[in-house]
Amino acid sequence: IVLTQSPGTLSLSPGERATLSCRASQNVNNVYFGWYRQNVGQAPRLLIYSVSQRATGIPDRFSGSGSGTDFTLTISRLEPEDFAVYYCHHSDDSVGTFGQGTKVEI
Amino acid sequence: QVQLVQSGSEVGRPGASVKLSCKTSGYTFTTFALAWVRQAPGQGLEWLGWINTNTGNPSYAQGSTGRLVFSSDTSLNTAYLQINSLKAEDTAIYYCARYFTYYYYYLDVWGKGTTVTVSS
Questions:
Q1: In whole angstroms, what is the distance from residue A33 CA to residue A23 CA?
Q2: d(Cα B37, Cα A105) in Å, to the nearest integer?
Q3: Are A38 and A87 in contact (CB under 8 A)?
């Protein structure tokens, strides 16, 4: 499975809404799909699992949606810490892959 | 709290081997798998695979070169990644992450990463 994210870069201001997309090359099972945020110089952090389930401690400004091959991460109001790179991810018992990332910049 | 503490930076010569460690705490080691993810300088995340810490059975990414070896030691609550026959393209940050695999699959806790530099 290949995951393709768009856009490559998103230029927005704090308080604005961000919409990030991830397209899979074939249908994926929702339970294997998630989103991660990576701030500069830090390890990735789990935001969303199973397409739309927020991870522990993740604020409700983050939401995920989609099914089949098309998935979306929405950040309703950008906070300073949200300017980072976001990766979609699919993995199961035998395979795993990340999208190439979307950079959200000011 | 759950923590994954990774070993320090490594510098290796081409053709040599390095062994990275990922020491876990705050939970029962054998209850969760451990995954390995790599990030080359300025690049995105690359899935390397994972190890079942209960059975010790590894699962490597498709297309893996065969130079990576996952292992674990339940007595030390530690997982290891050995990279053999180092090449310049192995220069990267290597992350371990706890891999939740009970119905939902996700990486919920990450180590801070180990930097591997391959240089002659």
A1: 11
A2: 24
A3: yes
A101/B contact by beta carbon, under 8 A: yes
| Closest-CA distance of chain B to residue A14, Å | 24
The 10s digit of each residue's pLDDT in B63-117 is: 777 899 999 999 999 999 999 999 999 999 999 999 999 999 999 999 999 999 9
The predicted-structure confidence for A30-62, as pLDDT tens digits, reads as follows 999 999 999 999 999 999 999 999 999 999 999
pLDDT grade for B35, boundaries at 50, 70 and 90: very high
Cα B19 to Cα A8, B37, B67, B75, B116: the distances in Å are: 34, 15, 12, 18, 10
Out of A43, A87, A91, the one facing B105 most closely (by C-beta) is A91
The pLDDT value given to residue A94: 87
- Whether the CB of B112 is below 8 Å from some CB of chain A: the reply is yes
Q: Do A94 and B50 touch (CB under 8 A)?
A: no
